[in-house]
Amino acid sequence: VKAKKDKMIRKKEKEPWERTDNLMNSVPTIDELEQIVTDADIENVLDQILGSSGGPIIRRFKPEPLWLWRCWYGTVLYNSSKGAIINMIWTTVVCLSLGKIAPQPGSDTSIRSILMALPTSDQNHPLISHLKVLEKVWSLLISFSTFLLTFFVGQAYGLWRDFYGIGRSIQGRLNDINLLVATHAARSPVTRKKGSHKRKHDDLHQYINNSQHTPEALRLCEKVSSNLKAYHILMWASNARRFRMLLTNRGLHHMVQRGIISKEEKYTLDTLVELPKTMKHLVFLEWIAMDCQKGLREGTLIGNAGFEHLLLDKICMLRGTVGSIGDKLDGRMPLAYAHFVQILVDTLVYTAPFAQYSTLGPLGCILSVGILTIFYSGLLDLAKVFLDPLDNEDYCQGSVYMDIGVLIRESNAASKRWIHGASKY
Q1: CA 404 from chain center: how many Å?
Q2: pLDDT tens-digit map of 79-90
Q3: How far apart are CA 251 and CA 106, in angstroms?
Q4: H, E, C per residue of 55-75
Q5: Region 276-296 average pLDDT
């Protein structure tokens, strides 16, 4: 009950990007966000990304048919029901008009009589003869629409799966860097009790195992982990509308207050005026590479040229994986392709009352158009949602929502895990 109330409250409150006058741009600029976001908005976003608890990245489901039938919010039925009702009203108007133009032999033209009429219209009427021709064309159109729409949805879902894989791959590269730094950081020597020269399995207390990171190495591990955390947050803020407000001056100020970045780091970011705000996260990646190279020179990190090559390779792989996010969004689907599929599905749905009138009758047409809207227009809406994996356009509420905050929180927990896991050996 509480979750439903919270959902209703969120639906009444406008999101920051809904307060802008630039309705043509689904992702507002940072300058626009500077004017419209509040401190409460920023704190709410930070609450979603901080912490170490994961959670479901997408809505989970149970395979039982009855459970799936009971689902409503965020489903195709939920998002296409309004369109189905509108199209059924349109079909009712069409059927009433056709019933008056070509009435049933021996029947009156009242609304009730027209709607309750059976599909036995006067086949000799010129209008009905033309509708019969349209029905043949429409039968070919529905076959073509079924094939093309199914293929279109498959391509859109492939993009969505690619984005999910990119998010997990970024997590993997972050874990690789933390693992390599934590396991190759300098350690203090093992101390043993006097007289214990050989390990005895029956008396493990013969050894005092206190090999741990040196203070300098521990500081390096924590610095690399902190910079990776800031990089991960600002990277998603540069790509996802939901977190974009963190790139504003107030957003960075709140990140300083929360301990995500330091005052010195914020000052350095502010001085890099030639670097776009959506690219500021790359600075943290460069700092990580330079800190690791400095650690190798000073002995804080223990490793040869092969280790250095592997570490830098992981950093470059992380940069390349992150760079593919913008590439995927820029080329997600050509306009001509999406436009053609939209016109095809709309033509199929809106010509259905005329094509099916002589065969199904008024009531059959109304029911048929409602079903076609749910399954064809609904499937097209689902494809559009797949083409917006970061929810930057918010086309259908709650349909296929990928919670980026879960990825960030999981990475935050993993960064501490690697340091603690290698703290003693």
Answers
A1: 7
A2: 889 999 999 999
A3: 74
A4: CCCCCCCCCCHHHHHHCCCCC
A5: 94
